[in-house]
UniProtKB/TrEMBL annotation:
Its cofactor is Mn(2+); Mg(2+). It catalyses: O-phospho-L-seryl-[protein] + H2O = L-seryl-[protein] + phosphate; O-phospho-L-threonyl-[protein] + H2O = L-threonyl-[protein] + phosphate. Keywords: Hydrolase, Magnesium, Manganese, Metal-binding, Protein phosphatase. GO terms for molecular function: metal ion binding; protein serine/threonine phosphatase activity. Its EC number is 3.1.3.16. GO terms for cellular component: chloroplast. This is Protein phosphatase. InterPro entries: PPM-type-like_dom_sf (IPR036457), PPM-type_phosphatase-like_dom (IPR001932), PPTC7 (IPR039123).
Length: 319
């Protein structure tokens, strides 16, 4: 719900490549036994995982002039770090800008990614970033950190979310945390809010070719998982995929006849049209206008140049 484009947003042309392409490109040889040490050396080198990233943020139509209240950051440190904070709009009723808390929270998290005490742990990063945030307000937040070995570590408070897509299917999704319908868990400047200890923490092993879709609730309230799969499958480029998902969420959010994930959930919680409309066969429908933040991370792997060179030289010396 708060736009960090002047601070932390990543331009749509951004790519997050940690490892440069390997210098060793082997050509077919008519005499493969000429270099017996070569295959042994390459077997010792494990590929390293990282993200190719695309981002898109579309503010709520009524907040477009202020940039909305979502904030996010992307880092190429280690395997890659993705994070979103969604400022809680209710603070505007107390003359507090809801964007300030989420923006400062993400700014602090971005600056602490390489902190030794954080130790590349998203829950500790959340704790330290929250403790360093002095703005009044609150926000839902999700942080995901990819190890180079392919382990993705996630810490989530509230209803921002993450999906892992593999071979055309959603194989993992984070469930929302909420007190009651439309009132999610949130980190806050007030004592009554949640803390890093309330975060849902999990890990998942990723493979090359997997796609990560992270978003604020503006995405998941308006786009079904099957739409996420079908949309991302149309694009090889993460930037284009992120924009397509954000555009779809915006269009669905403005469609009063669309039976959105949000309206379906509302009806399941007892919210619906008056009885006389039900008699006429009507029901509560429509998307949920909101700030929409989408981060798409495509998992790529590459050989570590330095480790490759060391393994090649070692095996050559032994041969």
């Amino acid at each position: 719900m708060a736009n960090p484009t002047s601070r932390l947003s990543i331009p749509h042309s951004h790519r997050c490549f940690l490892s440069s392409p390997p210098r060793y490109r082997l050509k077919p040889s008519s005499s493969p036994k000429k270099w017996p040490w070569l295959s042994s050396a390459l077997r010792q080198v494990r590929s390293e995982m990282s993200f190719s990233v695309g981002t898109c943020l579309i503010p709520h139509p009524e907040k477009a002039d202020r940039g909305g209240e979502d904030a996010f950051f992307v880092s190429s440190y280690n395997g890659g770090v993705l994070a979103i904070a969604d400022g809680v709009s209710g603070w505007a009723e107390q003359n507090v800008n809801p964007a300030l808390f989420s923006q400062e929270l993400m700014s602090n998290a971005s600056g602490l990614v390489m902190d030794e005490e954080v130790n590349y742990d998203p829950q500790i990063l959340m704790r330290k970033a929250h403790a360093a945030t002095s703005s009044v307000g609150s926000a839902t937040v999700i942080i995901a950190m990819l190890e180079k070995n392919g382990t993705l570590k996630i810490a989530n408070v509230g209803d921002c979310g993450l999906r892992v897509l593999r071979k055309g299917q959603v194989i993992f999704s984070t469930p929302p945390q909420e007190h009651y319908f439309d009132c999610p868990y949130q980190l806050s400047s007030e004592i009554i809010g949640q803390t890093y200890l309330d975060a849902m923490v999990c890990t998942i092993e990723l493979m090359e070719g997997d796609t990560i879709v992270m978003g604020s609730d503006g995405l998941f309230d308006n786009v079904f998982d099957h739409e996420i799969v079908s949309t991302t499958s149309r694009f090889k480029d993460a930037v284009e995929a992120a924009k397509a998902l954000a555009d779809l969420a915006r269009d669905n959010s403005m469609d009063v006849s669309f039976d959105s994930p949000y309206s379906i959930e509302a009806r399941s919680r007892g919210f619906d049209v008056p009885l006389w409309k039900k008699i006429l066969g009507r029901k509560l429908t429509g998307g949920k206008p909101d700030d929409i933040t989408v981060i798409v991370g495509q998992v790529i792997s590459s050989l570590n140049d330095k480790k490759t060179e060391e393994a090649l030289l070692k095996q050559k010396d032994l041969s």
